[in-house]
Protein 1
Amino acid sequence: MRDPETGETIDDALALWFPAPRSVTGEDVAELHLHGSRAVIAASMALLGRLGLRLAEPGEFTRRAFLNGKLDLTQAEAVADLAAAETEAQRRQALRQLEGGLGLLYRGWSERLLRLLAHLEAAIDFPDEDLPPEIEARVAAESAGLLAEIDAHLADNRRGERLRDGIAVAIVGPPNAGKSSLLNQLARREAAITSPIAGTTRDIIEVAMDLAGYPVVLADTAGLRDSADVIEQEGLRRALARAEAAELRLFVFHAGQPEDAEGVAAWPGLDTILVANKIDLARSGERLPPGALAISALTGKGLPNLIETVTARIAERYDIAAPLLTRARHREALETAAAALRRSLAAGLPELRAEDLRLAWRSLGRITGRVDVEDLLDVIFADFCLGK
Ligand code: GDP
């Protein structure tokens, strides 16, 4: 790499040329591989600046790739997620989205909707033509099928969003059972703390950690007991709310007081692991409730087993092949589309049904940012034999 004016060599470098459109952004791209010292970079940047080049704005490469049709919006978002991924599971999810699985799913729905819309409009616009008589019934049946698929995708318990933001696990149980000790043990010994969470309240302490590749937000809640103290009552209320909203609960109780485990009955149907703590103190032959894991938060006994159990429960729910909904933005658009589809199915007039199909289609198009009408016209009109 030489200074074009003085001819002075700046670095012994490698240049790669990617002609458009087969580059990351779809434009002509040159990559310089330099020796990355500060002096080399400073000299190179000064030289490139003299040629009229500038540094990219944040996200500019991705933006250009999107504008040139190299990525859809879900993939552009995945680039940001991949750059921010802190755990293996987050990295895998972002990569899957970057590979385009999610966009493919949404575009597939969008294309099916557009086709239904075209058929319905054909039936409206050309009532005298030789169109198959059952066309409206078929559109209705297929709309209902599509709606069922979107509803199923929406009813995912926000798994994709949780995987992106951290899976909530609440530690609950009576006071002094060893909840804080367990949190400390888990955070300190078995998992890397990836980022501290701001806004820790007096009653709930949260720690974000990487648990065997899963992003987990572990919350230590106030002890569950009846109290006359107003502040304690508030802590209790928050603890209960947190426990109910969490993906998984660890109910910690003193192994010597197995009757305390009955408190777990407060959450019928919710996934809860019973943890009998302080087994270093408990007398042998103590009867533990079935399924309870015995640990000592003091000595660390039983912790590997507990971590394995927690990880297995999480993996059960998150290790699935189907692309997951990852953002509130997508959820909103999908909900709007589903509502429009529902209205369309309930509407009497074909014109009204068509209008709602159009709204549903637009809403889906907003997710990927690609509304490929032109590309689809051929496909759609090839379906008709109107000779027009
Ligand atoms: P929390 O109120 O449920 O958060 O309970 P803490 O974690 O504050 O623990 C209450 C007391 O029990 C503390 O003095 C801990 O040191 C003690 N403790 C916690 N876990 C164990 C354990 O496994 N064995 C023993 N012997 N003591 C424990």
Protein 2
Amino acid sequence: MIKLLVTGTVAVDSVETPFGKKDSLFGGSASYFSYSASFFSPVSLMAVVGEDFPDEYRQVLEERKIDLKRLQVLAGGKTFRWKGKYGFDLNVAHTLETQLNVLQDFSPSLKDDRDVEYLFLANIDPDIQLRLLDEVHHTRAKLIAVDTMNFWIHNKKKSLLDVLKRVHLIVLNDGETRDLTGEPNLIRAARKIQEMGPDKVIIKKGEHGVLFFDGKYFSALPAYPLESVFDPTGAGDTFAGGFMGYVAKTGDLGFDNLKKAVAYGSIMASFVVEDFGLDRMRRLNNAEIDNRLKSFKTFSTF
Ligand code: AMP
């Protein structure tokens, strides 16, 4: 039985923010997710990289004891690459270039290990997400969640809608929510998404917090207010890693506990944006997470 499995991208990013520019940063949706989740639960990463994938990036994941036995290296292939830019509105990422590379030949397979308790389909081609859904013993999974982005909403909408019919939860940002549904109002958009499949919908609004819909229940949480946001890349995946990691750790799918998981996700995201790439996460410890959660609780309840 795999406790928590993620599939998504493991990438080489180039990122430009108003505060600086970095080429060749370690990134990818599955990298950020698993790094964050590992603070709460064992996590297994299923992804593909090319022969050019640097050893030092692999070591970053090994630091957190992330299970890498399902990380394939494709001979002769090049790792997925993403180039993005942020203006002064750090909530909006502008994609300058996406090189799919090895992603085009990636076919995830679980072989005989098909019992997965918690599954996260991080941002990746929805056809790959569908293939993994075919592999997992669906009825035995406690929670199956998915993330996506505009690139796939525009290029692979039909496959994405098929994915939605087969998951319990979707995590999206506000722009993606509007794109997916064609509905400007986020509450109505969430209801529309629930009709497409997942009963649980999390809408991230960057520095404006999170909306969480669970069947007919609803909650709204602020973001942890930060004075200096340096690089927002990976905030969404880090949020999802904190959320799923905490759910996997506690095993409690009740609404109150899921709200707490949303708070943990928000706290994890508040750390990752404080430096480029995974740099801040690599300096993070559990005491800092607990302290920030405590202060978050103090100023967000009344
Ligand atoms: P986010 O949490 O949304 O900021 O995700 C940032 C990460 O998503 C970056 O490290 C990129 O490598 C990765 N990424 C960018 N575009 C895509 C895409 N089309 N599919 C999957 N991953 C992507």
Protein 3
Amino acid sequence: MPRIKIAPSILSADKSRINEEIKEVEKYSDLIHVDIMDGIFVPPATVDSDFVKTIKTKVPLDVHLMVHEPSDSYIRGFIDAGASSITIHEEACRNPMHQLEFIRKNGIKAAISIKPKTPLENIKKYLDFVDMVLIMTVEPGWAGQKFIDETMPKVRELRKLKPKLDIEVDGGITPYTARVAYDEGANVFVAGTSIFGKKDRAGAIREILSSLK
Ligand code: DX5
Ligand code: ZN
């Protein structure tokens, strides 16, 4: 199994002081997870690539596009803003292969995500063309939801199919649910509320990590 990576989600951070917020987690993070919502694929709308440009950190930016049919130029905006990986949704794209190829052609990592009710079957044809798969463990769109256990068989099956692939889980991740997902084969853990919702962010990350020992 690939190494464990912790990815705090800044959806739950204070955006007006984003660089200070990131400073508090930087030392203990492998990725900074940036949620982009368009108000179409998911009801809420969030920050755009101009905001991502203002983020100053050495930690790789893991951009999660909850966006309907992202165009080449839209994706390019995030690459130019400093993304080191971009995740698209299978449900949001007519031909996800196009976006995946475009992302990789531009020299960064490409990932594909599925919502809790989307079967793993839908993305099997892309597995040789991605650097990571994001199995959503809540319905995309909001922080602070409850982890959906029924998504775990997909993680288990995917880990069997791809022993070396980064498998990311996102939504309702706490020390407890991180352990549940880890036992099924997940190795990249996105956490918003359980990190930025706490005063002691470093302590919160340590708690997640110690649950994985
Ligand atoms: C939800 C986002 C998540 C969100 C997770 O659509 O993709 O990244 O920030 O938040 P928590 O950890 O609070 O479930
Ligand atoms: Zn996310």
